Please model this.
Amino acid sequence: MIITLLGKKTGKISAVVKGARKPKSSMRGTVQLFNYGYYLLYRGKSLYTAVQCETLEPFVKLRENLLKFAYASYISEILTLVLPEEEVNNAAFDLLLTSLKIISEENEVLGARYFDINLMKISGFFPRLLSCVACAKNILNDRGSIVFVASKGGVLCSWCSRDEKEGIPVSRGTLVLTNRLSSMEPDLLKKLKIAPQFFEEMAEITRGFWRFILDRELKTLDFVDNVQDMNKKEG
Ligand SMILES: [Zn+2]
Model:
């Protein structure tokens, strides 16, 4: 069995785990998705082999709650696509851990958006949210409608967006909030009360932007949408 690990000292790697499916194997926990722990690795010619693991946080809730599982899968997919193999990235490591904690213990949508925004920042793709990408006008002084255009890397003011067809309309509130998430201490997130309308707009912005940056549709997005619809129907 081959698993993908994000290590503080190794970066993103693939590792073989032997005998993980045997009931008594000490390696069973290591192959559980979203497991966080110390892994003892041996480096082979092309792959690592994981021979021992001491779990620090098994993130059980992420596997027991379907919506949390969907969002944890979503952030894992993006991280796997964005990070190159074997490149140490402490900021990405810390971000993954913090985001998994928020998804597990608090609000899964907030955890996913916190992850989106901060991974964009870490990897140098951060969109321009508070001033127009074409004329640099501060959008907070603009009374007209603002749109987000992924291919332009940010927002267009009401004047510059008059002929824009691809833009997603966004409120100033969402832009300010999205921007704030990129510089906020994770502990303060708990106090944040975000209305569903802001979350919906943030999702539109981040989805559109990832689609443009990664040049593909994320496989986990349908999964996230389906689970969310299911939960809405159940009320
Ligand atoms: Zn403008």
About this structure: The helical segments are 60-64, 66-82, 90-105, 108-122, 172-181, 196-214, 220-234.
